[in-house]
Amino acid sequence: DQQVKQNSPSLSVQEGRISILNCDYTNSMFDYFLWYKKYPAEGPTFLISISSIKDKNEDGRFTVFLNKSAKHLSLHIVPSQPGDSAVYFCAASDQGGKLIFGQGTELSVKP
Amino acid sequence: DAMVIQNPRYQVTQFGKPVTLSCSQTLNHNVMYWYQQKSSQAPKLLFHYYDKDFNNEADTPDNFQSRRPNTSFCFLDIRSPGLGDAAMYLCATSRDLGRLAGVGETQYFGPGTRLLVL
User: Fold this and answer.
1) pLDDT tens for each residue of A54-105
2) Residues of B in Cβ contact (< 8 Å) with A98
3) Among the partner residues A43, A93, A98, nearest to B112 by beta-carbon distance
4) What is the SS3 string spanning A73-100?
């Protein structure tokens, strides 16, 4: 029973264009959402987060959008750069603080 | 730089031979977590310590144990590794568990230890 799903295992984007990574969740008790970036042979690195009281959070080239009614969040990267090529995990937590991760989406940004 | 450190980065052990993975942190965070991640899968939480309080996930096998002798260090012990235990083991920390004013806690991960069981 997957509470957090990333339905696209991979995404390929041209350098300079927008990358959109999607994530769906089923548990309405989740109120804090995070995106992590992971390079091969390294641990996940925190990228950006959003609380359920907001619908958008922006940090430089990275923007996370939250649609609570659809139980959907997305990460936009604009403009995409080759160094953004990595696996991106979304994660969600409830009041207990435990993180539930999606399976990840591998982003490839081509020059 | 404050960080989460895991040693070793790669560990090879034999089937059934006990192995210990270590994690240390300089963030002075209260909570330390251990995750197991297998290829193309989401990280799976095994257990966490909130200060000295140990919290085991319901589906974590008894084969996996943990120790936290002080704030900075946390160990993962696998008593009798099986072939199915080969995975990346990730340590993470967070300042706290609780939630203040709707702001969640971010977890910070170490680089991971890749375990190979022969």
Assistant:
1) 999 999 999 999 999 999 999 999 999 999 999 999 999 877 778 899 999 9
2) 45, 48
3) A43
4) EEEEECCCCHHHCEEEEEEEECCCCCEE
